[in-house]
Known about the structure:
This protein is mostly helical. The chain contains five helices and no strands. Residues 1-20 form the signal peptide. This is Cytochrome c.
Amino acid sequence: xxxxxxxxxxxxxxxxxxxxxxxxxxxxxxxxxxxxxxxxxxxxxxxxxxxxxxxxxxxxxxxxxxxxxxxxxxxxxxxxxxxxxxxxxxxxxxxxxxxxxxxxxxxxxxxxxxxxxxxxxxxxxxxxxxxxxxxxxxxxxxxx
Length: 144
């Protein structure tokens, strides 16, 4: 009887751990999609496809900054072996300090841009510096 309870407990623990990892992957994907949505809006402003809107630019930077603070914790070592569809490369965990520092830099650059962007000219000068972080990280740590 004790053995049955022990096996059932271990099985429940394994299922709970799998669900927790699923949640982490889903959380990070949602976080990244949210940042991607913000870059679509601001990218349109950068290309002149949408009129410049300081409030939208500042809101995008705030989202990027906030999400960059959260992102590193959503890539625990245990999520490396997930069976879920993800574009995260093993390089994330092989170079975790570099990966984490890329989010720190993104957050710092977004904060700096929030302080310095006051008009369309400063937006066009500063926002690409924030976006450069995204491209650098994607080239190293993301499939595709």
